[in-house]
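Example 192.
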Amino acid sequence: MAGFTGFGRRRELDPRLPPGQHLEKGFPVLSAGPTPNIKRWELQLGTEQGSRSLSWADFQALPHEQIETDIHCVTSWSKLGTHWSGVSLDTLFDGLDTTHEYAMTTSYGGYTTNLPLSELLGGKAWVVDTYEGEPLGAEHGGPARLFVPGLYFWKSAKWVQGIQTMASDRRGFWESMGYHALGDPWREQRYA
Ligand SMILES: Nc1nc2c(c(=O)[nH]1)N[C@H]1C(S)=C(S)[C@@H](COP(=O)(O)O)O[C@H]1N2
Ligand SMILES: [Mo]
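Predicted structure in complex with molybdenum atom:
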């Protein structure tokens, strides 16, 4: 019954898979450019009311949370039950007030991606520095990447360098090439 071998991969049998997604056991690397050579890591956070710059030591000193969750790439693979640790954006932005509703994330190497603040705050996003108990590998965005598992994985900017709030939405790298401004996998928001 060869036809049954693919059954376990089908969405009907795994409600954790969003529409149009299939299970991936490995961990593909998707980078639009080369892995950047980061000499001195620093994270810059800014709103219209203030800014803050964190060194690696500053970042390490902040409370890290353990995260177990699924990830969904717009190219249609999903990984279930992955483990990460990192600092919540609520912690990173604590005390930095803003009236803005959007943010642009910038990475070492030049990648950008835009997100509404409502998807970055409220326990929905982290800057992570470990994956499955190990320091995050450079090919996956190490030493630290943004992690927004509720949205397609292109929003999880690898080698994150800065997060700046903005008054109105602007499009990042993939968004300006036709990908969706938000990217909710459950609503299959792949393209604009
Ligand atoms: N800086 C940067 N971040 C990035 C990308 C990139 O090209 N550069 N690709 C995005 C895309 S499209 C995906 S699917 C994920 C892939 O992450 P991975 O290589 O760890 O699987 O990273 C996202 N973050
Ligand atoms: Mo992707």
